[in-house]
Amino acid sequence: MSIRSALALFGLTALPPCAAFAVLSLAASPVVPAAANEARGPAADISAQLAASSPSDPPGVLVSRQLLEESGLAVGEVVLFSADPRGARPAPFRIVGSYEPRPDPMRLGSKRLEARLHLPDLIALMADPSDPLASESVASVNVALHDRKDAAKFSSDLISRMPGLIATPTAPPPDEADPFVVLERFHLAIAIVTVIGSTAFLLALMAMRADERRETVGILRLIGFTRRGILLEVLVEGLFIAVAGAVFGVLFATATQGIVNRFFQWRYDTALVFVRVTAPIAARCIVFAVPLGVLAGLVASWTLLRRDIVALLRR
User: Fold this and answer.
1) Residue 136: exposed, middle, or buried by beta-carbon count in 10 A (0-12, 13-18, 19+)?
2) Between 20 and 30 A from 68 (CA), which of 27, 54, 232, 269?
């Protein structure tokens, strides 16, 4: 299938060379600065032949930040790309800039040695000289839909129009085997256990704190304060402490998220954001923390207020 017919099948048109880019992974293809080939024996002859047959200004290429740093390259240098792992039939390109690869959690820790070429340049680089139709053939085409939910319908319609064509969604819907779904459930389980454990710890702490104020409560009862009045005071005090603690926790997380992100981004050499405190997350934390704090204070105080005045004043 030719490239033009494949695009026409999807109702698409080819972009001009300056707008069409393709990503080339350099895991197996060498990238060699053209200037460095002068002292590499046969490679110097290849560079000389390319310099004689290529235009004075080679086509531009963007390289990833990781490739730029690891190879010691710089913007403006001329490099040689080859689709052959042995470096056969290299083509010169001039580095016009660098870019940060799109963060991918599935490739965390892997080196993103990539380059972005204009689509015609990539086709010419990957084409087989022995096949006259190599530059006009395509094995697969990726199509981005406006709504991912239409992927199944789009695939079935496309297959019905052209029998023998295989069309499958590249991003299947999350299911039980999706690692991110499993990870999300694992985080939810950790959060539930943490909330239950912290609530029990807070209740025990508030009970000890209330027992320390046993004599104060007894004196308040002697001078005429009712259980309801003391309980209301405890409610207001617990509400203030719970709100202050929740706000402090949110502010602390917001202030330290940058440090956490920078550390792990440095550790894994990625632009992936590991921690992000958003307004919904902060609101959810406050909604959970404030009622639990107030409830723990009320339960601890009520166990103390149930005693008689003599028991409260007894040492």
Assistant:
1) middle
2) 54
Q: What is the pLDDT of residues 211-230, one digit of tens each?
A: 777 777 777 777 877 777 87
| Residue 117, number of CB atoms within 10 A of its CB | 23
Q: pLDDT of 19-41, one tens digit each?
A: 344 445 554 344 444 443 333 33
Distance of alpha carbon 257 from alpha carbon 271, whole angstroms: 14
Residue type, 80: L
Residue 143 and residue 152: Cα distance in Å, rounded? 13
Task: Evaluate whether 221 touches 230 at the Cβ level (below 8 Å).
Answer: yes
Cα angle: 137, vertex 140, 146; to 5 degrees: 130
Count CB atoms within 10 A of the CB of residue 83: 18
91 beta partners: 81
Please, what sign has the CA dihedral across residues 223, 228, 234, 239?
A: negative
Residues in Cβ contact with 78 at an 8 Å cutoff, skipping those fewer than 6 apart: 33, 34, 35, 58, 92, 93, 94, 95
Write down the domain spans for the chain.
Answer: 3-141, 179-313
In this prediction, residues 267-273 reach a mean pLDDT of 86
Query: CB atoms < 10 A from the CB of 313, how many?
Result: 15
Q: pLDDT band for 255, please (50, 70, 90 cuts).
A: very high
Most confident residue range from 8-12, 31-35, 281-285: 281-285
